[in-house]
């Protein structure tokens, strides 16, 4: 399907429940050098977030971020985070006008997509009465921290988007056929995304204090892009002080690309469980909040 992102056409993958209204909607945002298909991997039947979510009564919308999919030709250099956030918000307005999103939206994002999710949440606006399905319920982000573990010379540059061992980890973490299938999922990382990468630690500090929805962050056991030691995670939580709830989870038997590995189903079920917790917290919140 396609979305109108303020005059820019974004491609997306959509899965909806059959014969019933969705409980809520998951908006999935892929990382750098990937595509929306990251959330609909087919190397193993248990990998697809779209299939699982629809079976469990959620709408799942996986968006090709600006500079990927249908917009790649129009934006060969991509867009920075602020511009991507504005385009994403316009696309979600278009989507919620045309589709039932139940109680609202959760942004489920991976790696660079998590940077976009945090940016969008920091600039989120309270929807009007006619846009209740546009309400942001929470953020679920994997493969993203706030302090790099990789040295500066290994950050994305004009030669690529990072060494493959940091993106994938040990080959045994992925089902047979994953790398053959991934040819359809991998895409060039736009130059403007690569240019912004070194500045993320400072940018996170400015965004984190503005996040006012529940946040869940997942680090793979074999994550090597980001620091996730106790000191780093304590500082990360402290910076998200305005969020009503911050959950930090670890995913055993997983590399950076969690949704393409054997751990995909477990991660997706945990993420949908977090969505259910967001729904429950919303129902029991004191009136007037």
UniProtKB/TrEMBL annotation:
**Superkingdom of origin organism:** Bacteria
The protein's matches in Gene3D superfamilies, at most eight in alphabetical order, are given as: alpha/beta hydrolase
Q: Does the keyword Hydrolase apply?
A: yes
A single GO molecular-function term is: hydrolase activity
Q: Residues in domain AB hydrolase-1? A: 26-258
Q: Which UniProt keywords apply?
A: Hydrolase
Task: Give the transmembrane ranges.
Answer: none
Q: Which InterPro entries match?
A: AB_hydrolase_1 (IPR000073), AB_hydrolase_fold (IPR029058)
The name under which this protein is listed is: Alpha/beta hydrolase
Q: Which organism is it from?
A: Streptomyces alkaliterrae
Q: What is the lineage of its organism?
A: Bacteria, Bacillati, Actinomycetota, Actinomycetes, Kitasatosporales
